[in-house]
Each structure stands twice: as structure tokens, then as C-alpha cells.
Write a structure and sequence with these properties.
173 residues, alpha/beta, 5-stranded parallel beta sheet, 14% strand
Length: 173
């Protein structure tokens, strides 16, 4: 994981954090989307339960380091996204990571059931790619170049669906 955070480094727009290295195969999908859009990011393991001091430091210094959106993935009790949201005014996107025992339902419920005043946007279980895309869309609100890339991305998706539709129509005849 060559993009592990250096707290002295600046100019990363999105912070991706996860509770455990076992979450990396899921969370790297957010990084792939950010890379596709040319958005700088940092990625790290910050456990709400095992490294609370790191969690606190990360959340409290994110703005001064230039982070604009945080994507936080966690499984099980999944306190990382909510705790991160309690430490910063930045938008936090939670990624519930699938678990063996409850298939990620526990993670999903832990992340979406935030108290009033501490919102966490939440994507589907293992939905890190959508978290990355949502982060890009949030950045696009104030960055016209990023917004244009989102528009092109969505047009490309539309085109792909139309092409699929044409192929089915041809095969049906």
C-alpha cells in the first residue's frame, strides 16, 4: 500500500481510511475511481477500537492537511465512519464492509444509524467504488473540471447501456 498516509504531506483531496488491512481489497476500489478521475488521495488503516489516538489525530488534522472528503470503511461494529464524522466538519462517506457472521448487515446498520448532528453518507455493503464516485461528485460541486469529468463518466455509462440494448434487440430478431 504505497499511498499510506504521511501526516506531514499535504495536497491530497480525499482521505480513505479503513479499520483493518482485511478491508483493503474492498477499499482499494474507491482509490481506483479516484485515480480514474485524477483525484489525489491518501489511504491508511485507522482503527476506531485499536488505534483511537490515530483516529483522533487523523480526523482533527484532515482539514489542515487539505483533505476535502473522507471515505471510511469498516466491518462489524463499524464505528470508524461515525467517529471520523464526529471529529471533523468534512463530509464522511461510510463503506460497510461485508462480515462473515452477518454478511455486512451489522456494518451497514452501525454506519447508517448515526445520531442527529453527526451524518455519514453511506453506500452499499462493499460499495467502495460508489464511495469513490460520490467523493468525486462532492468535489465537483466546487471544481468545474471535476464536474465535467463526472458528466462525461455518466454519459459513457448511458452510452454503454444503449449499446447493450441495441445488441439485445439485434439478437432478439
Amino acid at each position: 500500500m504505497e499511498n499510506m498516509i504521511n501526516l506531514n504531506e499535504k495536497n491530497k483531496r480525499v482521505g480513505i481510511v479503513m479499520g483493518s488491512s482485511s478491508d483493503f481489497p474492498i477499499m482499494k476500489e474507491a482509490a481506483k475511481i479516484l485515480k480514474e478521475f485524477g483525484i489525489s488521495y491518501e489511504i491508511n488503516i485507522v482503527s476506531a477500537h485499536r488505534t483511537p489516538n490515530d483516529l483522533y489525530e487523523y480526523g482533527k488534522t484532515a482539514v489542515e492537511r487539505g483533505i476535502e472528503v473522507i471515505i471510511a470503511g469498516a466491518g462489524g461494529a463499524a464505528h470508524l465512519p461515525g467517529m471520523m464524522a464526529s471529529l471533523t466538519a468534512l463530509p464522511v462517506i461510510g463503506v460497510p464492509v461485508k462480515t462473515k457472521s452477518l454478511k455486512g448487515i451489522d456494518s451497514l446498520l452501525s454506519i447508517v444509524q448515526m445520531p442527529k448532528g453527526v451524518p455519514v453518507a453511506t453506500v452499499a455493503i462493499d460499495g467502495a467504488a460508489n464511495a469513490g464516485l460520490l467523493a468525486v461528485q462532492i468535489l465537483g460541486v466546487k471544481d468545474p473540471e471535476v464536474m465535467e469529468k463526472v458528466i462525461v463518466y455518466k454519459k459513457k455509462m448511458e452510452y454503454e447501456v444503449m449499446e447493450s440494448r441495441r445488441k439485445i434487440e439485434i439478437e432478439e430478431i
